[in-house]
Design goal:
The complex is a heterodimer of chains A (392) and B (221). Chain A has helices spanning 2-12, 43-56, 68-75, 94-101, 132-152, 159-178, 180-198, 203-228, 237-248, 260-265, 275-294, 326-342, 380-387, and strands at residues 18-27, 32-40, 61-62, 79-82, 106-114, 117-126, 253-258, 300-309, 312-319, 346-352, 356-364. By secondary structure, chain A is α+β, with helices and mostly antiparallel strands. Chain B is globular and about 45 Å long. Chain B is built from eleven helices and five strands, in the order βαβααβαββααααααα. Helices cover 47% and strands 13% of the residues of chain B. In chain B, β1, α1 (14-25) and β2 form a beta-alpha-beta unit. In chain B, α8 (154-164) packs across α10. Classes of the chains: A alpha+beta (392), B alpha/beta (221). The A-B interface holds A 175, 178-180, 182-184, 186-187, 190, 193, 217-218, 222, 225-226, 231-232, 234-236, 238-239, 242-243, 258, 263, 266-269 and B 13, 15-16, 19, 58-59, 61, 65, 67-68, 71, 87-88, 90, 92-93, 96-97, 110-111, 113-114, 218-219, 221.
Chain lengths: 392, 221
């Protein structure tokens, strides 16, 4: 939907030829940015921009240091003017230089609001200056975006919603298996034991039955419950991953490594990893391991969790199997990417014959930023003075 | 220790809660002062009831889990024993609690509700600031030992298992058919091998030993 709006926008503005239009989305719980949708005027520009993004803005990316985007995020300011003006504003001006080399000299970037909070931004980059009426048009597109956001609600659409719904069902099933059913079996076993104790005639038969019930309760049902939903993940991520390691140990040699930085985040109280994030990481690792065993005939699996950046957790699952075949693993790949997207992260997969397969997930995690890191660079008031209403 | 221990139960499933309270009533010297379905009500009642030990299900449904409730209770009453109840075999979560604070936390499988000896021993251990594990778990681990476990002598392994289950030196002696003095000697040796310095950082060496046991079976997170 967002892309449709953007392509309409590009076709409809009279006068200048808009080259690129993007919607950025801000993630308040992690202080990061990702691109929601973008459109380029033609296919060469499209490839150029895709390359630029890969190089300078692999997502999700920290807000800090992104100049105008940072200020929109914190103060809801806007910008319209020559791209040159932003050169000294950002930590890494190379992307801006590259845009300018392609004759994209002008930019206009506006906040997209939702309930008094800046939710995202609309950015357009053009090779000619934008007039007042065009700016006005862009502002109304931004407000259309606001209404779209309003309609789609908190959960977003498609994959994220499906994942949440599925987890809710899984949790309900696991709780039932883990709770009431276990207790009822305990009671049955207890009653049978009492009966076996009081009557030696049938004791041996009863004991055999009791043993089978015990096995059912202790192994089958408990394991099923774990596979449906790892209840312990409500407490922390690491024990759940250990459990996964144990589960797979009979199929492959598993080596699980969790860095001390990640361990420091995974605390039972005040965890920096939300339950949703923990579950997403768990499911991605689980899926990758399942693919390794089921489709790739792997003998060894290595799972590593570490911080790629202070706010970005990297989970890697490497296996020595024969790699992904699209036909068999297509759904698995889709599910992993979908899980990652649901928590604003992303998954990439690299597979080469002889070298095995590596699934890498980058997931933003909430890490409290130092309080004055941003404001010390510029006074917020000064920003607003220089940039608001600055139309070319 | 002939003093009665006041215990509190926090368990969201009514069926299990009743089962547990009934089992506790069959324990001599254990007095159930309250049974709650959720952590909040239990924490609110702490000042009135002043239990020595709380038995808390890890999984309390929506809202804070048992570990969080235990940590909150211990903030108010640092010497209170917490027995975590679970159907998960994840005693490694004890490793998530800061080492200096883990004394007095114990781990019990829900299925042990029918075993009065185990319940009693666990409650006593929690009240005395020890950290012990459900014996059923210990039995399950024996079948999959790690390399570091195999570095211990047979005797040392036996004794460490029993320490992890909360057996006193006297009880260990009875179990293995040796004198208490022998047990004490073996334990001194064991601590040396494990690198445990008695009362280092104010942590009871038996707690350090149980943590070492968990580590040996790769159960720590």
């Amino acid at each position: 939907m967002a892309r449709v709006i953007l392509s309409r926008l590009m076709k409809s503005l009279p006068g200048s030829e808009l080259a690129v239009a993007e919607f950025y989305r801000f993630h308040r719980n992690t202080d990061t940015i990702s691109t929601w949708a973008w459109e380029a005027r033609d296919s060469t520009l499209h490839s150029f921009l895709a390359g630029l993004k890969r190089q300078f803005m692999p997502e999700p990316v920290a807000v800090t240091g992104h100049g105008i985007l940072e200020r929109i995020y914190h103060a809801g300011v806007s910008f319209a003017g020559p791209l040159e003006k932003l050169l000294n504003d950002v930590i890494d001006p190379r992307a801006i230089h590259r845009l300018m080399a392609r004759r994209l000299h002008y930019a206009a970037i506006f906040p997209v609001w939702r309930e008094a909070v800046v939710f995202g931004a609309l950015g357009v980059y053009s090779d000619s200056p934008l007039g007042q009426s065009q700016i006005g048009r862009l502002k109304s597109v931004a407000s259309v975006m606001e209404q779209l956001v309003e309609l789609s609600g908190n959960l977003g659409t498609g994959p994220a919603l499906a994942a949440v719904t599925e987890e809710r069902f899984r949790r309900a099933v696991a709780e039932e298996l883990h709770g009431p059913i276990q207790t009822k079996l305990l009671l049955i076993i207890s009653d049978l034991r009492a009966t076996a104790g009081s009557s030696s005639a049938v004791a041996s038969q009863l004991n055999a039955a009791i043993q089978r019930l015990e096995d059912l309760r202790e192994h089958d049902i408990r394991q099923l419950s774990h596979r449906v939903h790892p209840g312990i993940i409500r407490v922390a991520l690491r024990p759940a991953l250990r459990q996964l390691e144990d589960e797979f140990a009979s199929y492959v040699a598993v080596h699980l490594v969790i860095s001390s930085e990640v361990a420091a985040l995974d605390t039972p109280i005040n965890s920096e990893l939300s339950e949703r994030t923990r579950l997403a990481i768990y499911r991605i690792v689980e899926e990758a391991m399942q693919n390794a065993v089921r489709h790739a005939q792997a003998k060894n699996v290595r799972v590593v969790l570490e911080m790629a950046e202070p706010h970005l957790l990297r989970a890697r699952v490497w296996d020595d199997g024969v790699g992904f075949s699209q036909a068999k693993a297509g759904l698995g790949i889709y599910l992993m990417k979908s899980r990652a997207r649901g928590v604003y992260g992303r998954v990439t997969i690299q597979s080469s014959p002889g070298l095995g397969t590596e699934v890498q997930a980058l997931i933003p995690v909430r890490v409290r930023l130092k309080p004055n890191r941003i404001l010390s660079r510029r006074d917020r008031h000064e920003w607003e003075q220089s940039y608001i209403g600055d139309h070319c | 220790m002939a003093k009665e221990l006041d215990v509190m139960v926090v368990e969201d499933q009514p069926l299990y809660r009743d089962l547990l309270v009934t089992a506790l009533k069959n324990c001599a010297l254990v007095n159930v002062v309250g049974a709650f379905a959720a952590g909040a009500a239990a924490v609110a009642a702490l000042d009135t009831l002043q239990p020595s030990v709380a038995l808390v299900d890890i999984d309390l449904g929506p809202g804070p889990n048992g570990v969080q409730m235990g940590l909150e209770m211990r903030q108010r009453y640092p010497r209170m024993g917490i027995v975590l109840l679970s159907n998960y075999d994840q005693p490694g979560i004890l490793g998530l609690i800061p080492r200096r604070e883990v004394s007095g936390w114990c781990y019990l499988l829900k299925s042990s509700v029918s075993n009065v000896h185990v319940i009693k021993r666990t409650i006593e251990a929690a009240a005395n600031g020890l950290m012990i594990l459900d014996p059923a778990l210990v039995q399950a681990y024996q079948s999959a030992p790690s390399e570091s476990w195999q570095e211990l002598t047979r005797r040392q392994q036996e004794i460490l298992s029993l320490i992890a289950q909360g057996y006193s030196n006297l009880a260990i002696g009875e179990q293995l058919g040796i004198t208490v003095k022998s047990v004490e000697n073996y334990i001194t040796q064991l601590y040396q091998v494990l690198g445990i310095v008695p009362n280092q950082e104010g942590i009871h060496p038996r707690v350090s030993a149980t943590l070492a046991y968990l580590k040996a079976f790769r159960q720590l997170p």
